[in-house]
């Protein structure tokens, strides 16, 4: 045989998979996202009455509502815990600064600041590393894999949820440059996986409910709703949660699933908003739809914008600068615009 032909045949042979890659692939298996439409399955579907189908559909909506409620509640707990821990940290550092300012010991305050942040971060790292390594990271890649058919061990367990919540609280309170979007997506997915199955493998408890939905196809749809509810709770954007699941996560979609996921996202945002209003002693003031918070800005200055459209048109069409007087009265721009506003 010619040497070039021998070389081409050797190149065409499949390479042997390294031993460590074999061990890694053994950890994962695929989820069954195809319904096996065999004779038993078809007979079971025929025996189900119209009322039974209606009850199943209502159950799907109820489960999505529970997913949204619990996800919003978890987001509320995270926000309150971070606010209180950060408040304690800032209070201690502030007292230390006031104590050592006159004697010139601000370096001690800096060391105290670093120690407190390191302590929070260390606690979060320890509980993840030693109790549940599956809670490491944002959780978005794992949920994307799950929604596309890759079964990652312990990714939607209750223990993973608890460690994830504690980890993100400690990380944010410790001042790390991390956010709550990824952990909220993971948390919502875990909530959805547990509620939709009516049982908990971590607690070894079976509640004997929602047994019909103990299939990979049904569980996948609810996990999509949980991921969307997590995005909705993080940003206060129900439509954004639906679009995240549609564009970034799920590969299996239908029209009814869109409405159920949107319902879960709305419930999640409303739950977070409602409980935060109670916590802030302003029941019914639904002005905190998400976890993004830039602090409170207290000012007695009120700005009256009676005709923002007129102002916008004037600013675009006029080459002159638009001067706004911040007073308790209405806008005073220039005589021409004032006349326009009065006439309108």
TrEMBL record:
Residue ranges crossing the lipid bilayer per the database entry: 58-82, 103-131, 222-245, 257-279
Keywords from the UniProt entry: CBS domain, Membrane, Repeat, Transmembrane, Transmembrane helix
Subcellular location: Membrane
Superkingdom as given in the UniProt entry: Eukaryota
Membrane topology: Multi-pass membrane protein
Cellular component annotations (GO), alphabetically ordered: lysosomal membrane
Coiled-coil intervals, chain numbering: none
GO molecular function: chloride:proton antiporter activity
Database matches in Gene3D superfamilies: Clc chloride channel (1.10.3080.10)
SUPFAM superfamilies recorded: Clc chloride channel (SSF81340)
Principal cellular location given in the protein's record: membrane
Family annotation (InterPro entries): CIC-7, Cl-channel/antiporter, Cl-channel_core, ClC
PANTHER family membership: CHLORIDE CHANNEL PROTEIN CLC FAMILY MEMBER (PTHR11689), H(+)_CL(-) EXCHANGE TRANSPORTER 7 (PTHR11689:SF136)
Protein name, per record: Chloride voltage-gated channel 7
Source species of the chain: Oncorhynchus kisutch
Lineage start: Eukaryota, Metazoa, Chordata, Craniata, Vertebrata
Gene of this entry: CLCN7
């Amino acid at each position: 045989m010619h040497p070039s032909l021998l070389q081409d045949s050797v190149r065409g042979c499949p390479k042997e998979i390294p031993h460590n890659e074999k061990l890694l692939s053994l950890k994962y298996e695929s989820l069954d996202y195809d319904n096996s439409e065999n004779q038993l399955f078809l007979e079971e579907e025929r025996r189900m009455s119209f009322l039974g189908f209606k009850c199943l559909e209502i159950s799907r909506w109820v489960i999505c509502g529970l997913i949204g409620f619990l996800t919003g509640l978890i987001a509320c707990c995270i926000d309150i815990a971070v606010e209180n821990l950060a408040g304690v940290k800032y209070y201690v550092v502030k007292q230390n600064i006031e104590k050592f300012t006159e004697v010139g010991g601000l370096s001690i305050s800096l060391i105290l600041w670093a120690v407190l942040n390191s302590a929070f971060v260390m606690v979060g790292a320890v509980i993840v590393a030693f109790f549940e390594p599956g809670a490491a990271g944002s959780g978005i890649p794992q949920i994307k894999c799950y929604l596309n058919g890759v079964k990652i061990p312990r990714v939607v367990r209750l223990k993973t949820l608890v460690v994830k919540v504690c980890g993100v609280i400690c990380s944010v309170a410790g001042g790390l440059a991390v956010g709550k979007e990824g952990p909220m997506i993971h948390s919502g997915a875990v909530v959805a996986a547990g509620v939709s199955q009516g049982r908990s493998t971590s607690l070894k408890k079976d509640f004997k409910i929602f047994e019909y939905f103990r299939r990979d196809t049904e569980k996948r749809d609810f996990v999509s709703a949980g991921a969307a509810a997590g995005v909705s709770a993080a940003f206060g954007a129900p439509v954004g949660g639906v679009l995240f699941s549609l564009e970034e996560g799920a590969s299996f979609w239908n029209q009814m699933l869109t409405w159920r996921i949107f319902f879960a996202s709305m419930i999640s945002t409303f739950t977070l908003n409602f409980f935060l209003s109670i916590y802030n002693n302003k029941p019914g003031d639904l002005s905190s739809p998400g976890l993004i918070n830039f602090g409170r800005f207290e000012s007695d200055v009120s700005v009256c914008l009676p005709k923002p459209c007129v102002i916008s048109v004037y600013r675009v069409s006029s080459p002159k600068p638009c001067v706004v007087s911040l007073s308790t009265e209405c806008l005073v721009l220039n005589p021409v615009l004032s006349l326009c506003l009065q006439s309108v």
